[in-house]
Specification:
By secondary structure, the protein is α+β, with helices and mostly antiparallel strands. The chain has 6 helices and 8 strands; from the N terminus they run E-H-E-E-E-H-H-H-E-E-H-E-H-E. Strands 7-4-6-5-8 form a 5-stranded antiparallel β-sheet, sandwiched between helices. The protein has a 3-stranded antiparallel β-sheet with strand order 1-2-3, with no helix packed on it. The radius of gyration is 18 Å and the shape is globular.
Length: about 250
C-alpha cells in the first residue's frame, strides 16, 4: 500500500526501482521462544529481511530509523551486523528468546555506532533540502490515524526517526515500504537522479513499556539539538502522550 501525496498521485505498487525490497523470509522460531504470549496479547515472531532478524509484535508501538543509501560506510555496517548476529545466534542455539540484557546490547550497538556516523552528517545529506524533507514529512502524515498513529518523528539530513503504532491489519514492513518507495521516487525526481535513495535495511525497536516509550520519544525530538541543528523545522511529537499497546500512559 503506497503513500498517496496531497496531489493525489499514487505510485504503482511495483514501482520499487529506486528502493528495491528483498522479500521477507520468516525464520523458524522455537516454540519456547513464544512463551505464553497469545495472539491478542501480541504474539512475537522473528523475521529476516536478508540480514538481521527483527522482532515484531501485533498491536505494538515501534521506534524505527531508516537512512539514506550513502549515509554509512559499508565497513561500519559490517562490523555492527557481525556483532548483532553473534548475539542473536547465541540465543537461537540455546532455543530461547533474547534476554533483556541481550536486547539492550543490540540497541546499544545501534545507538553507539550508527548514530555517531549519522549525526556527524555522513553522505550526501539529501534530506537537508527542504523540498525533499517536505516530501518525507508529507508521506509520514498522510495515513496518520488510518494505517498507523504517529507519536513522534524527526527528519535529519541523512536519516529519519519515527515512533508510531501500526493500526490493525497494517504490517510494520508494509508501512516502511510505503514510505520509502514513494519518497525515493519523488526525491529522485527532484534530484534528477536514479538508483538507490534509501538504504534497504532499517532499524526497528519494539517499545517495551511506558518508560521506554518516553525515552525513545525524547530521543527523537532531541536528536537535532544533539547533532548541532538549532531551530530545526523537521521534528514533531504528538501534543498528548499516546499509550503503548498495554494501554498505560508514560509515568503511570
Amino acid at each position: 500500500m503506497d503513500v498517496a501525496p496531497a496531489s493525489g498521485r499514487r505510485p504503482s505498487q511495483r514501482d520499487t526501482a529506486s528502493d528495491p525490497i528483498v522479500p521477507e523470509r520468516s525464520a523458524a522460531v522455537p516454540a519456547a521462544s513464544l512463551g505464553k504470549a497469545s495472539a491478542d496479547a501480541g504474539a512475537t515472531t522473528i523475521r529476516n529481511r536478508g540480514h538481521l532478524p527483527q522482532w515484531k509484535r501485533l498491536g505494538a508501538t515501534y521506534f524505527v530509523t531508516f537512512r539514506l543509501a550513502d549515509s554509512l560506510p559499508q565497513r561500519a555496517l559490517e562490523s555492527i551486523e557481525f556483532k548483532q548476529k553473534d548475539i542473536v545466534k547465541t540465543a537461537d542455539q540455546q532455543h530461547r528468546p533474547l534476554t533483556p540484557a541481550e536486547q539492550e546490547r543490540l540497541d546499544q550497538l545501534f545507538a553507539e555506532r550508527i548514530e555517531q556516523y549519522l549525526d556527524a552528517g555522513a553522505g550526501s545529506c539529501g534530506l537537508a533540502r527542504p523540498e525533499i524533507a517536505e516530501v518525507v514529512a508529507g508521506a509520514l502524515r498522510h495515513f496518520d490515524g488510518e494505517r498507523y498513529s504517529l507519536l513522534a518523528w524527526c527528519i535529519m539530513p541523512n536519516h529519519v526517526h519515527v515512533v508510531f503504532e501500526p493500526s490493525s491489519g497494517n504490517a510494520l514492513a508494509d508501512i516502511l515500504h510505503s514510505w520509502k518507495s514513494f519518497t525515493a521516487r519523488r526525491a529522485n525526481e527532484i534530484l534528477g537522479a536514479t538508483g538507490h535513495f534509501w538504504q534497504r535495511e532499517y532499524y526497528d525497536h519494539l517499545v517495551r513499556d511506558p518508560e521506554d516509550l518516553d525515552r525513545v520519544v525524547r530521543y527523537v525530538v532531541e536528536n537535532p539539538h544533539r547533532a548541532g541543528l538549532e531551530n530545526w523545522k523537521w521534528v514533531w511529537r504528538a501534543a498528548v502522550d499516546v499509550a503503548p499497546a498495554s494501554g498505560r500512559q508514560p509515568g503511570q
